[in-house]
């Protein structure tokens, strides 16, 4: 590792925000030179409580995060935010890069806010998000928040990155069927009905509570019962209670417990698969891809098939 990279690594581990920002920029640019740094930072990680915030567009995710950051800062905690935004179809960059709703904290050196582009990933998170999280998790942040794009049913990737997931919903009115779909609602550790002053808020809370109770009966082995809370992010109403429940969820899944170990295994299994897929994709698209050409000829001639070739390639990679 070069001396400059060693200095950068030391600065990031010490909590130097500009150094972290530079390293995340290299991550977003797919700089292959960051891999040794990420490897070292992973070994130094596990220092932060990682909280995911997801939900449909318009639910108030950014506003609620702003309120949570304010609450935690008043308690003396240091907070980082990864805000994953829709990608520009032209540049690939984050469309909402300035995160205007979070600008209240722009002058606070106890807060770090970074926008990242989703790069078209339907799961709401790009692969670079996991690398950026590795950077932040090795720094002295008390809490790291990840906000997803807000694409609805496809946002289950967040549970593979965050230890605790907040699922926001707005008062649903007549759209109860959409909210009751299994996929997105099965990932929440805490359910939040934002815009608590809406006339349908109480009905939405009741419906979500009934849905959670049904899920608990079907999965009786689950020890944590997700609470359903009401917030009004614009005024801060309900935010302190939400922060308390986040702490309770972390306590319920404290490090070393069987539930925590299972969740950690699930997250790491996904992360390794994510890195493996990216490495294979890079190899397939690399300029020295001639190595694959001879292997393709028997498949084209119907002497073998793509599945057998894929298995053969995996066997070679394992040896």
Main sheet?
7 strands, parallel
Continuous helix count: 12
Percent of residues in beta strands: 5-15%
- Within CATH, the superfamily of the largest domain carries the name P-loop containing nucleotide triphosphate hydrolases
Q: Assign the CATH class of the largest domain.
A: Alpha Beta
Class from secondary-structure proportions? alpha/beta
Oligomeric state as shown:
single chain
Q: What is the name of the CATH architecture of the largest domain?
A: 3-Layer(aba) Sandwich
Overview of the molecule:
A seven-stranded parallel beta sheet has the order 3-2-4-1-5-6-7, with helices on both faces. It is globular, with a radius of gyration of 21 Å. Strand 6 (190-193), helix 8 (201-218) and strand 7 (228-230) form a beta-alpha-beta unit. The longest helix has 28 residues, at 258-285. The protein starts with a helix and ends with a helix. The protein has twelve helices and seven strands. It has helices at residues 3-13, 17-28, 35-44, 61-74, 127-137, 176-179, 182-185, 201-218, 239-252, 258-285, 290-300, 306-318; strands at 49-54, 79-85, 111-117, 143-147, 164-169, 190-193, 228-230. Residues 87-98 and 120-124 have low confidence and may be disordered. It has 319 residues and is an alpha/beta fold. It folds into two domains: 46-257, Rossmann fold (3-Layer(aba) Sandwich); 272-318.
């Amino acid at each position: 590792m070069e001396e400059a990279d060693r200095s950068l690594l030391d600065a990031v581990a010490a909590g130097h925000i500009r150094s972290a920002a530079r390293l995340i920029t290299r991550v977003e640019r797919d700089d292959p030179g960051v891999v040794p740094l990420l490897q070292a930072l992973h070994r130094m990680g596990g220092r932060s409580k990682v909280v995911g915030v997801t939900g449909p567009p318009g639910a108030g995710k950014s506003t609620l995060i702003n309120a949570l950051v304010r609450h935690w800062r008043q308690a003396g905690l240091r907070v980082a935010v990864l805000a994953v935004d829709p990608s520009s179809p032209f540049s690939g960059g984050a469309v909402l890069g300035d995160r205007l709703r979070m600008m209240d904290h722009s002058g606070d050196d106890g807060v770090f806010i970074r926008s990242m582009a989703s790069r078209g990933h339907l799961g709401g998170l790009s692969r670079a998000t996991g690398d950026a999280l590795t950077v932040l998790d090795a720094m002295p942040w008390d809490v790291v928040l990840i906000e997803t794009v807000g694409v609805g049913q496809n946002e289950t990737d967040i549970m593979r990155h965050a230890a605790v997931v907040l699922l926001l919903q707005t008062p649903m009115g007549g759209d109860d069927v959409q909210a009751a779909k299994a996929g997105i609602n099965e990932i929440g550790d805490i359910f939040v009905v934002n815009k608590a002053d809406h006339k349908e808020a109480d009905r939405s809370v009741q419906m979500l509570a009934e849905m959670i109770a049904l899920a608990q009966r079907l999965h009786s082995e689950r020890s944590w019962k997700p609470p359903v809370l009401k917030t009004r992010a614009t005024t801060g109403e309900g935010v302190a209670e939400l922060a308390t429940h986040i702490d309770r969820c972390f306590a319920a899944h404290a490090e070393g417990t069987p539930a925590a170990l299972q969740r950690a295994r699930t997250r790491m299994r996904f992360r390794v698969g994510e890195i493996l897929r990216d490495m294979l994709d890079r190899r397939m698209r690399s300029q020295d891809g001639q190595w694959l050409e001879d292997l393709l000829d028997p498949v084209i001639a119907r002497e073998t098939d793509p599945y057998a070739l894929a298995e053969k390639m995996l066997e070679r990679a394992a040896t």
